[in-house]
UniProtKB/TrEMBL annotation:
The keyword Cell inner membrane does not apply. One of its GO terms (molecular function) is transmembrane transporter activity. Residues 20-251, 517-639 form the MacB-like periplasmic core domain. This is ABC transporter permease. One of its GO terms (cellular component) is plasma membrane. It is a multi-pass membrane protein. It comes from the Bacteria. The chain crosses the membrane at residues 21-41, 293-314, 339-366, 386-413, 434-457, 686-706, 727-752, 772-795. Residues 298-414, 692-797 form the ABC3 transporter permease C-terminal domain. Keywords: Cell membrane, Membrane, Transmembrane, Transmembrane helix.
Length: 809
């Protein structure tokens, strides 16, 4: 019976080739999009799921309560790492981890030579407790070896990168030197971590190495210093509650920080939250966004729904073409149930064909969205049984959803009227026709929402990328200087760069006016009895920096090198916070920063020094107290040919002449600002593709309906042409009913799109206006695409010789 159904399905596919191709293509696009989204969502939600007792593993994080805002930090004071082991009851395992910035690694070779690695990431200090908490497969060495100072455990891939070995055991006893000063011996090799974990460390230096007098950690005994590098993980015992643990942490805090000005506190972050919580760092790794993932699932569902609607519309519209077949089958004894099973089997065959075709589309989509998709996401069906299982489930669900209603419609045809081919699905008042119209309206409403959303998001991105930020940024390069070199070398490099013909200006300073990362301090101002405490971002610069970036002065003067201990500059937002109305009134006001009091010597006009998601906040500028800065700012002359490339090559050459093999890192200021909106640009790219796919699927369905309508009205079109109807009149006749549906969709979609995008725009403190003509433009685009789709077949029908049309009847 099943083989017979399969044969019938293939025969029906061939007989209705155009409709079948439209259905298969639409379903293939929807399924391929769903598969790509499944790969992304499954990858992110699988993080740490393989951990034993994962529900009882936590990270201790910190919140620092500044006077006017809170700062969340993934780290804890260094002493808490030790205190938690002895004073935190209810913790089965406590694992301290000190995450290092990329380190220079040297491997001693024969003849006093070294194999060098400039910047090795994923290096941490920890001890054997880490491997007890996060169980890891050991390939060589012993777990207890990490309790000894100057030992290091490597992953298998890192050991192979360092040493020319064939087996892990060969690396034991080899020497690894970090930052030219920390000499360690390899005491163990562990398996590489899986891709679905944030704990993908490669070098594990024994924590006791940091307690040694020569390599001692900075602030190792200071309780009031919270550094995101120092992190603490633990597993709670089954009977312990998070409330009791947080109470103990508060007691530890109060015991060791009786005069904590910041009123910091320690909280527990579940292991399952680490990969998704942007409030805390994840070892400089990518943080997934649950709202984005859920949004992707919605997009996948919408695209599948549009494809299913195509199937329902086209199948019910072409049902009359199968009326005689159904009549014969009923006459020969086919039951209502058998007909439903037959038509559902046909749908499942089409859906399965579409699923196989989607396997060709998925790799293409993964390449297109390479910047948006996590790098560890890959498509290997033979190695991903979960993907095959998901595909089978998708085939069944989509097949039933798309095929169930058409199957009921076809199976209900009356045998007598079917044999006479007197059934109809197009007449006025016909419920099936009304349903098709409703579904078509829904399709184009969705497509129109995507169009409007795409235009609004694109307009906002253009707005933030092109808004005048209040300072110059084009053609300026920021070069980070090494902090472990003599300050005299900075001046040598500065003069060498200034001499280059492609350089217009070069200055030393702190960070550029706008950049990710910040330094915040508490500044106090007393006016009579009123005391203003405020956490303020502070930057470092002198007058040359301000002039290069074109930062406007509204009162006082720019900072000079001699102002390092005698003056500070503030922006207008800080001016108003202090209670001054006019910039001149703030000059001379004395602000207390830590243990020194300095006067305000200048007021800067407000400029945007962070993402436009945030309102402009108080900002202060100070000159360096030691006359040293750690960023070289270079303004290049207007680019001509490859002059900028030549300039950067020349700067790098002079860099290495002065700093040796220190890494040369630079970034154009305008590019770093564009990086603020990477997530929005990803959303824009996703919307572009979702819009394109939704329009394509909807238009394919519309084309199929137009082709059916044209076929049903062949005789009418022939008669009208004989009576003198023009081609334009025929096209208008065939188009008007469908364009009415598109207009209804536009009316419905506009308020929906506005509501959706207005919520998204609330995430920006500064937003582009959304003009009325944008909705008109999106409507015109939708009508234009629909009209082109309709005209493709309508013009062909209008140009057909009426004699041939009438004879065919």
């Amino acid at each position: 019976m099943l083989i017979n159904y399969l044969k019938i399905a293939i025969r029906s596919f061939r007989r209705n080739l155009v409709v079948s191709v439209i259905n298969v293509t639409g379903l293939a696009i929807g399924i391929s999009a769903a598969l790509v989204i499944y790969l992304i969502v499954h990858h992110d939600f699988s993080y740490e799921n393989f951990r034993k007792d994962k529900d009882r593993i936590y990270r201790i994080v910190s919140i620092m309560h500044f006077p006017n805002q809170d700062f969340k930090n993934s780290g804890v004071p260094f002493p808490l790492q030790k205190a938690a082991r002895t004073e935190l009851s209810g913790a089965e395992q406590v694992a301290p981890v000190t995450v290092m910035y990329p380190m220079k690694v040297s491997i001693p070779l024969a003849g006093n030579n070294f194999k060098k690695f400039k910047k090795q990431p994923d290096v941490v200090y920890t001890d054997d407790s880490f491997f007890r908490l996060f169980e890891t497969k050991w390939l060589a060495g012993s777990l207890s070896s990490l309790t000894q100072p100057f030992n290091v455990v490597l992953t298998e891939s890192r050991a192979k990168a360092y040493f020319d070995i064939k087996a892990p055991q060969e690396a034991i006893g080899r020497v690894v030197v970090y930052n030219d000063s920390i000499k360690t011996t390899v005491s163990g090799i562990v398996a590489d971590p899986p891709v679905n974990t944030d704990f993908n460390f490669k070098d594990f230096i024994s924590l006791s190495t940091g307690d040694n007098a020569d390599t001692q950690f900075k602030n190792w005994n200071v309780w009031n210093n919270i550094d995101s590098q120092n992190q603490l993980f633990f597993k709670a015992s089954p009977a312990t509650t998070t409330a009791s643990l947080e109470k103990q942490l508060k007691e530890l805090h109060d015991k060791n920080l009786k005069n904590d000005f910041l009123k910091s506190q320690y909280l527990l972050q579940p292991l399952s939250d680490i990969h998704f919580n942007a409030d805390y760092q994840v070892f400089d790794h990518r943080i997934a966004n649950k709202r984005t993932l859920y949004g992707l699932l919605v997009v996948a569902g919408i695209l599948l729904l549009l494809a299913c609607i195509n199937f329902v519309n086209l199948t019910t519209a072409h049902a009359v073409n199968r009326a005689r077949e159904i009549g014969i089958r009923k006459t020969l004894g086919s039951s209502y149930r058998q007909l439903i099973v037959q038509f559902l089997s046909e749908t499942l065959v089409i859906t399965a064909t579409a699923a196989l075709l989607s396997y060709l589309f998925v790799p293409i989509l993964l390449k297109i969205f390479a910047d948006f998709i996590p790098p560890d996401v890959h498509f290997s069906p033979l190695q991903q049984p979960n993907l095959i299982a998901f595909t089978i489930i998708l085939i069944v669900v989509v097949g039933l959803f798309a095929g169930l209603y058409p199957a009921f419609v076809l199976a209900r045809f009356n045998a007598v009227t079917s044999l006479k081919k007197q059934v109809s699905t197009n007449g006025k008042g016909n419920g099936k026709s009304a349903l098709r119209q409703t579904l078509t309206i829904f399709q184009f409403t969705v497509a129109q929402v995507f169009i409007v959303a795409t235009l609004i998001v694109s307009k906002q991105i253009h707005f933030v990328l092109n808004k005048d930020l209040g300072f110059k940024k084009d053609g300026i390069v920021a070069i980070d200087l090494p902090g472990d070199q003599p300050v005299e070398k900075q001046q040598v490099l500065l003069q060498a760069v200034k001499s280059l013909p492609q350089v217009e200006q070069a200055v030393l300073g702190g960070q550029p006016p706008a950049r990710n990362g910040f330094a915040t301090t508490v500044i106090q101002y007393r006016s009579g009895k009123k005391l203003v405490n405020n956490s303020t971002e502070i930057k470092y610069a002198d007058e040359n920096y301000f002039k290069m970036y074109g930062l406007k002065l509204v009162a006082g003067k720019y900072l000079s090198p001699s102002d390092s201990i005698r003056g500070i500059m503030i922006n207008e937002s800080y001016l108003h916070l202090l209670g001054f109305k006019q910039p001149d009134e703030a000059l001379g006001a004395r602000l207390k920063i830590q243990n020194r009091t300095v006067p305000v010597v200048g007021v800067l006009r407000d400029f945007y020094f962070s993402s436009l998601h945030n309102a402009i906040k108080p900002l202060a500028y100070s000159a360096s107290t030691k006359g040293e800065y750690f960023t070289l700012h270079v303004k290049l002359k207007p680019n001509s040919g490859d002059s900028w490339h030549t300039a950067l090559s020349s700067i790098e050459s002079r860099w290495h002449n002065i700093y040796g093999d220190k890494d040369f890192d630079y970034q154009f200021v305008d590019e770093s600002i564009a990086g603020f909106y990477k997530a929005e640009q990803n959303i824009s790219q996703l919307l572009n593709w979702a819009t394109g796919l939704s329009i394509f699927i909807s238009c394919m369905g519309l084309l199929g309906l137009v082709m059916h309508s044209t076929l049903q009205r062949t005789k009418e079109i022939g008669i009208r042409k004989v009576l003198g109807a023009s081609v334009a009149g025929i096209v208008a006749l065939l188009s008007v009913d469908f364009l009415k549906l598109i207009l209804i969709a536009i009316v419905l979609a506009s308020p929906l799109a506005w509501l959706a995008t207005s919520q998204w725009l609330q995430g920006f403190a500064y937003r582009a206006t959304v003009p009325w003509w944008l909705f008109v433009l999106s409507g015109v685009l939708a009508i234009g695409v629909a009209f082109v789709t309709i005209s493709f077949n309508a013009v062909k029908a209008a140009l057909t010789n009426p004699v041939k049309s009438l004879r065919s009847e």
